[in-house]
Amino acid sequence: MKVPIHRVTTGWNLFPPYGVYSRMRNAVLVVVFVCAYGVIPGQTHPAPPVNVSRRVAFFEVHDRNMMDALLMFGQQEHIGIGIEYIDAAAFQNRTTIQLRDRTMAEVFDAITEPLGYRWSTDGQVVTVTHDGAMVGKRNLLNTRIPKFKVDETTMREASRALHIKLFFVLNPDHGGIAGDDPGGNRNFRIEPFEMKNATVRAILNRIVSQHGNGAWVIQQPPWTMGKDLGRGIWRMVEYDRTDGDYSRGLEIWGLGLHKY
């Protein structure tokens, strides 16, 4: 992008001493960079929307459940994913997929459609759901948080902060909350951001969208999504595994499964 240069003729001395001129020139260059690219230091610059028409050279999974296949694909392609519905089949049924030179949309279809799931894009995030997902107030993901703000932190710490915010929205007269600080991998940090009157789903998507290096996964059965069972409504997943066994780190309750 070319920035126009306007020449001004005046009788004043427009050429200050070299040291001052050098500092002024550097300042001008910074201003030009900010104006040209719309980036202000310290602000989060949104990533481009997910391009599901982009072709994937190769994707392969062997004898995996749907949850692991989704998260392995997200890790491979650096895509933030939100999984807002779970059932037993997503953990128990195994699949083998080998795809070459397919679009991202075709890969997501191959992973989700056999079990009746579907996906959609929300900016930089792919959301995975099912016709059985609860809607409206029967799903806590639709609860609006008046104000949510975090400084630079890990994805899991941001997730923990959201859990606390949601708890007090649901329990405004409660005196406090106790729990372990999940910490999180310090290599999976997000920049500061603030959202007002946003749904829990939108805030979770914002957390995983910044760098496309993680996902959030619901841990409760759909018929319980209108209340917090106190065991973690969702889990923030960092794409940090080399074995792809992400589902083993989830704590799933109420589906007749042991800890997967």
Q: If you had to describe this structure to a student in words, what would you say it looks like?
A:
The chain is α+β, with helices and mostly antiparallel strands and 260 residues long. Helix content is 27%, strand content 24%. The protein has six helices and eleven strands. The protein has helices spanning 18-37, 66-77, 89-92, 104-112, 155-170, 200-209, and strands at 55-64, 80-83, 95-103, 117-122, 125-130, 144-150, 153-154, 189-190, 193-199, 214-218, 234-238. It has a five-stranded mixed beta sheet, sandwiched between helices. Strands 1-3 form a two-stranded antiparallel ribbon. A two-stranded antiparallel sheet has the order 6-9. A hairpin with a 2-residue loop joins β4 and β5. The radius of gyration is 23 Å and the shape is globular. It starts with 17 loop residues before the first helix and ends in a 22-residue tail after the last strand. Mean pLDDT is 82; it is low at 1-45.
